[in-house]
Design brief:
The complex is a heterodimer of chains A (about 350) and B (about 350). Chain A is of the alpha+beta class and about 350 residues long. Chain A has helices spanning about 40-50, 90-100, 105-120, 135-150, 165-180, 195-200, 215-220, 225-230, 355-360; strands spanning about 1-10, 15-25, 30-35, 55-60, 65, 75-80, 155, 185-190, 200-205, 210-215, 240-245, 250, 255-260, 270-275, 280, 290-300, 305-315, 315-325, 335-340, 345, 350-355. In chain A, the strands form 4 sheets. Chain A has a 6-stranded mixed sheet, with helices on both faces. The longest helix of chain A has 18 residues, at about 165-180. The model of chain B has no long low-confidence stretch (mean pLDDT about 90).
């Protein structure tokens, strides 16, 4: 079972919602669409579902062209951010409703509803009405309705966004397990990098209607092919700095330099954009030849186990995440270090020139 | 700005409450200091919005008083309390420009036009919308509209308190960082008393000086982020703060030793004989995966979440989570765990047991 988009694009009133996209999704996989609001996640899902017809290109399902086929005639299920259940029906009837529409027999329906309810841990609540359930249970009921159809393609549009933080955390752990058992193609839209990492599978990083990169989730995270993907897939956002390579030195800031090490040794002379993640900002120098920065501390935020430090380095705004609680003076100078192993090098246009050394080892 | 006193406060949504269960907000007595930033944290239905609505005057409590400084405002209207509020979803006047939206609260109170112009410009810069000040609000994205709501909430400098009810729900993750940082800077600069309601622990912990953790209509702990992390007073706080939350493991305690299924776990301090349900609480950050030492576990899954890995394992039939650094590798022979002794807390009937010298 595969879903293939070939050169699919969508233009509405002269505005490009989705740029020409080629994407192949395979059976039994979880595919995360990761990008900020308006990056095209929902538009792309609607094209996959057949709710919208692409302006150019074709959609293939199991090798057959389904481009013009109505959503009703496809094997598709969709779950939205707002949980949609029938309030007057019991949980059992809610889950059974798609099967009844398909004209399945009562014993078939009963078996499928019970199996799905089991999977979603709703077995003891089948007689209740949706409004007698907690938010998490209501969304699980909506998810169960999507799963029970045994649709080949299940589209989930930010399904956990309206739920409490802790509940979200629990469902994020549950969902991949459920999907492993179901065997369909899952597409899951989210704005949150952490959610993509917890879900695993594959990730497509979206930016302004374009799939910038598609691959295994940890690979896209550790080896972004451009600065845009790196930015989309980092929370807090990735930090950037202009550098230049001259001979064996890395130059940055107001005439500072450090001897190049690791992959940076082989970098051709010229100007680049360096990127590093917030968790790689260090308050102590741990390796030789780090890039050292005299920054100003703007704000600190404590989480109890970590401190987020918001820094200003010669006008660039950076965020660092450091272990432990640090009582630092706001507005004061703070020197921080970046190990060259943690530096991604991009061209000035943002294309990856050299991946961070640590990412290749991981 | 004002100090806020909650005196013997409780609320039931139905008349004639009989037992404690009938109260959505159970009796509480607290004094919140002038100029501090508080976060009310808890899952939906815990009573945090009830409490916020009582403070803002949208709801009158069924018992007790609320004081701003030393003035009883229990029966005062929202308008008379002189507070600013920002809600979960944007409230903006679509037909007005961004500038007019921001100026609205000042204009209403007859502020000097020159001051209004200057203040609106300043707030516009703070929410990053200087370039859009003369655009109409209609047609802006949801997060742009919410930024206007935030800006309007902060435009008046003379309010008693600023109340935020889940204000960043509709904002993109990247923008959340920026807006939270700005709120935080603003708090440092002006010293407003701020109350921020959220179910998101990261937001609560990073925003507030003091976090008020609520559970089932009760305040279970008020503390700094560090206190909530290091010494959760209740197992619920341990579970709710931290991602994943604290591991809670049934154990027998004697002196400065805990016994888990026949295995000794040393404790930093001694305890007198304890009665009731006894457990130890250890955060995933302070559990170490080893090859030879400690308690036996079966590793079920390893989740790579970027800057660390979450190891989900089983310890005598109970789930236990372990955090491992990004650059630490996990070998198949790692099937034992040890704890950082100084980070093991002891709970009796779910409440933290203070340490005693043995």
């Amino acid at each position: 079972m595969t879903l293939e988009l070939r050169n699919v694009s969508k233009v509405v009133d002269g505005l490009t919602h989705i740029r020409a996209t080629d994407l192949t999704l395979n059976k039994g996989t979880m595919n995360v669409l990761l990008g900020p609001t308006l990056s095209g996640k929902t538009s792309l899902m609607r094209l996959m579902a057949g709710l919208d017809v692409p302006t150019t290109g074709q959609v293939f399902w199991e090798g057959n062209d389904v481009t013009g086929m109505r959503v009703q005639d496809r094997k598709v299920a969709m779950v939205y951010q707002q949980f949609i259940n029938y309030p007057s029906m019991s949980v059992y009837d809610n889950i059974a409703s798609p099967l009844r529409l398909m004209g399945k027999s009562a014993p078939e329906i009963d078996a499928a509803v019970k199996k799905t309810a089991d999977l979603m841990q709703l077995s003891t609540m089948l007689d209740r009405k949706p409004l007698e359930l907690s938010g998490g249970q209501q969304q699980r009921c909506a998810l169960a309705r999507a799963l029970v159809k045994d649709a080949g393609l299940v589209l989930l549009d930010e399904p956990l966004a309206n739920l409490d933080y802790k509940l979200r955390e629990e469902l994020r752990v549950e969902i991949p397990k459920i999907f492993e058992e179901a065997g369909s193609i899952f597409v899951y839209a989210t704005t949150e990098p952490e959610e993509a990492l917890l879900l695993g599978g594959n990730t497509a990083a979206l930016w302004k209607g374009q799939v910038r990169q598609f691959g295994l989730t940890p690979d896209v995270y550790r080896q972004p092919t451009d600065a845009t993907t790196a930015r989309v897939f980092s929370d807090p956002p990735m930090n950037f700095l202009k550098i230049s390579k001259t001979g064996s030195n890395i130059m940055f800031g107001d005439g500072q330099s450090a001897a190049a090490t690791g992959p940076l040794v082989n970098l051709a002379d010229g100007r680049y954009l360096a990127g590093f993640r917030p968790n790689h900002v260090e308050l102590q120098q741990k390796a030789a030849d780090t890039l050292a920065f005299a920054t100003t501390l703007v704000v600190t935020e404590l989480t109890g186990s970590e401190t987020f430090i918001h820094l200003n380095f010669q006008g660039d705004k950076w965020v660092g995440v450091v272990h432990g609680i640090h009582d630092l003076e706001l507005g004061a100078a703070l020197s921080v270090h970046i190990d060259q192993r943690h530096v991604y090098v991009f061209s000035e246009d943002g294309d990856l020139v050299a991946p961070a050394a640590y990412a290749l080892a991981a | 700005m004002a100090k806020i006193t909650l005196d013997n406060l409780a609320h039931a949504y139905y008349p004639n409450p009989k037992g404690e269960d009938d109260f959505a907000l159970k009796e509480l007595n607290h004094v919140w200091s002038d100029g501090e930033a508080y976060a009310l944290l808890g899952s939906s239905g815990c009573g945090k919005s009830t409490l916020l609505n009582i403070i803002s005057g949208l709801l009158h409590p069924s018992q007790g008083r609320i004081l701003f400084d030393d003035k009883d405002v229990t029966q005062s209207s929202t308008a008379d309390r002189n507070i600013a509020q920002v809600f979960q979803f944007p409230v903006v006047y679509d037909t007005m420009t961004v500038r007019a939206n921001l100026a609205f609260p000042l204009k209403n109170r007859g502020a000097d036009p020159q001051y209004i112009a200057q203040r609106v410009q300043q707030i516009g810069a703070m929410i990053g919308m200087e370039a859009e000040l003369d655009k109409r609000a209609r047609g802006l994205t949801a997060d742009a509209k919410q930024k206007i709501s935030l800006g309007r909430g902060m435009v008046r400098e003379d309010v008693n308190a600023l109340l935020f009810d889940e204000p960043l729900t509709v904002i993109d993750p990247h923008m959340k960082w920026e807006l939270r940082t700005q709120l935080k800077s603003l708090h440092h600069e002006f010293g407003h008393t701020m109350i921020y309601v959220t179910h998101d622990q990261t937001e609560a912990l990073t925003f507030a000086d003091k976090v008020v953790v609520m559970f089932d209509g009760r305040v279970v702990q008020i503390g700094t982020p560090e206190e909530l992390f290091d010494k959760p007073q209740h197992t619920f706080v341990g579970y709710f703060i931290g991602s994943p939350g604290m591991n809670v493991i049934p154990a027998t305690i004697s002196g400065n030793n805990a016994v888990v299924h026949g295995f000794d776990v040393p404790l930093a301090n001694g305890y007198a004989a304890l009665e009731g349900k006894t457990e130890i609480g250890v955060r995933p950050e302070f559990v170490m995966l080893t090859e030879s030492e400690g308690l036996p576990v079966q590793v079920r899954r390893v989740e790579d979440v970027g800057r660390h890995k979450i190891v989900r394992a089983e310890l005598f039939g109970n789930e236990i989570n372990i955090l491992v650094d990004e650059d630490q590798s996990i070998s198949p022979d790692m099937n034992r765990i040890t704890f950082d002794t100084s980070r093991v807390n002891v709970y009796v009937n779910d409440w933290l047991k203070p340490e005693e010298a043995a």
